[in-house]
Design a protein that fits this description.
The chain is mostly helical. It has helices at about 5-20, 40-45, 60-70, 75-90, 95-105, 120-135, 135-145, 155-180, 190-205, 210-240, 245-255, 265-304. It has a domain at about 65-175. The protein is built from 12 helices and no strands. This is hAT-like transposase RNase-H fold domain-containing protein.
Amino acid sequence: MKSHSGANIAKVIQSKLFDWNIDGKLCSIVLDNAFLNNLSDILLPRGYLLLNGKLFRFRCCCHMLNLIVQVGLGPLSQTITKIRESVRHVRSSHAGLEHFRKAVEQANAPKKKLILDVSTRCNSTYKMLAVAYEFHGAFDRLSYFYEDYKGPPSSEEWENMKIAKDCLQLFDDVTNKFSGTRYPTANLYFNDICLVHYTLKKWLHSIYPFVQAMATCMLEKFNKCWSTLSLVLSFGCILNPRYKMKSIEFYFEKIYNGDFGNEVATRIHHIKDFNCTMCMWIKWQKELIHLVILMLQVEMEAIL
């Protein structure tokens, strides 16, 4: 392939669909390039996508949650930068580490290893903040032992960070669950994504202004994915005999309770309609395969 543009990838996919005789049955494609958003626009007019491409453009849930958290951490960026630089300062030199050990003993802080995050991964940022908060007393004392250390977070910033890390724990727990490899995950997505949605709406009414600001940013990003997300994930939830429609009705009542109009009933009807369409398509495919098998049997009998 000359380049990884949407047009070139579409040409390769087109040729393979005909070779494998599966044109018109394509549900989704896993790509490692998130910027290829025009791929579905190229394939859709040619009739290659299942259900007119409704299920085609779909992000990895863990990646989506990571992007939501990155946006939400904007109001706390200065405090997070202070903590990140404090951790980096301690870990960057032997002298800094020795002075920090003295501060840890004086503050009676736990004996743990500081974690420096990867700024583009929210789960590592959460772990850095969670561990750093346990050492906040040591960081406050570090400047007495180490003159080169400047700018520990203020008491107010530490308190805000304690609240923020408790909020971020939800995303860390959900991401870890979605990343599991020893159990099925398809039936877990809908409930946990709904829990995230419901929690974000609750945070809008938090007594802490920075939590409200964080939730506003996160919800704006979340809502861009939610319409497609709820459709796709609901299918796995409904097929689980333990949940079926009960889980969808339960979470939609919580999420949309108090919204204008009959939003709950409208959303549930939309989910039911989509899943009925999916079942009809699966039934049609099954009948089509059965018909092809019968035709092949007739041809074989004629040859024999």
